[in-house]
Write a structure and sequence with these properties.
It is built from 3 helices and 5 strands; from the N terminus they run αββββαβα. The two termini are 12 Å apart. It has one domain: Protein of unknown function (DUF1491) (hypothetical protein tt1805). The longest helix has 14 residues, at 72-85. The chain has helices spanning 2-12, 72-85, 102-106, and strands spanning 16-21, 30-35, 41-48, 54-58, 90-95. With 108 residues, it is of the alpha+beta class. It has a 5-stranded mixed beta sheet with strand order 1-5-2-3-4. The radius of gyration is 13 Å and the shape is globular. A hairpin with a 5-residue loop joins β3 and β4.
């Protein structure tokens, strides 16, 4: 349901967002491949913190959301490793010059 809501929001806001891989709706991690359309890419993962709050964290570069930009091949390699560990994961690709995360602006 979260993925569907984010995809609808992305369409309404003209954010190019594509479901690349459908995961298990109850158990799959959500990965977001961000492409800023200028050669910069990053991979975000949705995670649950100790307070029970979901957040998005960059899992490429040095892990800081602002400096996590890498090339497309680095994202692809990291994503391959993540999918080997979690075959139930969702993968969403976003191509947006403003690097907007449709999950943050729709329902978190």
């Amino acid at each position: 349901m979260l993925v569907s809501a984010a995809m609808r929001y992305a369409a309404a806001e003209l954010i190019d967002c594509v479901l690349v891989r459908r995961g298990d709706r109850d158990a799959g991690t959500i990965f977001l491949h961000m492409d800023s359309l200028d050669g910069r890419h990053k991979l975000l993962a949705r995670s649950l913190d100790f307070d029970g709050v979901y957040s998005w964290r960059a899992i490429t570069g040095d892990g800081d959301t602002d400096t996590a930009w890498v090339d497309a091949q680095t994202v692809a390699r990291r994503l391959d490793r993540e999918l080997a560990m979690d075959p139930d994961a969702y993968v969403i690709a976003v191509a947006d010059t403003k690097a907007r995360n449709p999950f943050l602006t729709s329902s978190g």
